[in-house]
Amino acid sequence: MIEVRGDFLTVKWLDPMIKWDEFTRLRKAVREGKGPTLVFGLSESQKNHAVSSLLYPLDRQCLYITHSDTQAKKIYEDFGFYLGDRVMYLPPRDIVFYDVAAHSTQLSGQRLKVLESLVLGKQHLVVASIEALLCIQTPPSVFKEGLINIEVGQVIAMEELARKLTEMGYERVPNVEGPGQFSVRGGILDVYPMTQDDPCRMEFFGDEVDSIRHFDLLSQRSTDKLASLSISPARELVL
Fold it and tell me: Would you tell me how many other CB atoms lie within 10 Å of the CB of residue 177?
């Protein structure tokens, strides 16, 4: 249930808070950036309710930092109840101290989704542990320059696009089997962006992008059509 009350666009879970004068003053102070604010005497669930109420409607980028990754996951789930898909979880970087033939790209993909959202200016609440933040990151301007945007009808040489994908950390393979890979066969370029759930297939007519579609990895059949495709770097540190 959503309703307009005064200067609040409210949902049902916010209703008890806006009846509380102290909360209204606190919310105004926080949203206007009037210095550090201390709130105490709340349980964990009450803290998440209070923070969600302070931030709703989410009209800016916000970062919530907690002491451990386990706690970050719990808080992310609580915020998801109040703020829906506007909440993102930033996991710690997967650090490997020895050579491996293959490793999971799931954590890298999750982190890259958050970074992509931030550099594109999307208004999300990011929940992270201190460990997840204590990593050297590519400057936002450099990461943003690494994003590739492709549209149907765009003119770009396939080999030029393949070169850009390689520079962004994608692996060129005979057939795409997982995130972070791409392949070129005739007039078709397949790529599995790190921040998307499905791989994409671009068909070229000369140097013009004729079509863009998602496709199924197992059957190799094309599914839904796309008007455009955004491809983020395949690694956090863009060289």
Answer: 11
18 by Cβ neighbours in 10 Å (0-12 / 13-18 / 19+) ranks as middle
Residues 6+ apart with CB under 8 A from 132: 69, 72, 90, 91, 92, 93, 111
pLDDT digits (tens, 9 = 90+) for 102-125: 556 788 899 999 999 999 999 999
SS3 116: helix
DSSP, collapsed to helix, strand or coil, labels residue 4 as strand
Q: Hey, what are 6's tokens? A: 């005064």
More confident position, 138 or 199: 199
Structure tokens at 31: 């949203």
pLDDT in the model for residue 56: 87
Q: Examine the pLDDT at 58 and tell me if it is beyond 80.
A: yes
Residue 176 near residue 191 (C-beta atoms within 8 A): yes
Residue type, 230: S
The CA distances from residue 135 to 95, 119, 138, 236, in Å, are: 11, 17, 10, 10
User: What's at 141, amino acid-wise?
Assistant: S
Phi, psi for residue 164 in degrees, rounded to 5:
-65, -40
Res 2 pLDDT > 70 = no
Instruction: Output the CA torsion 3→8→12→16 (10° steps).
Output: -140
Q: State the Cα–Cα distance between residues 151 and 90, nearest whole angstrom.
A: 29
Q: What per-residue string of b and e applies to 164-174 under the rule 16 or more CB within 10 Å gives b?
A: ebeebbbeeee
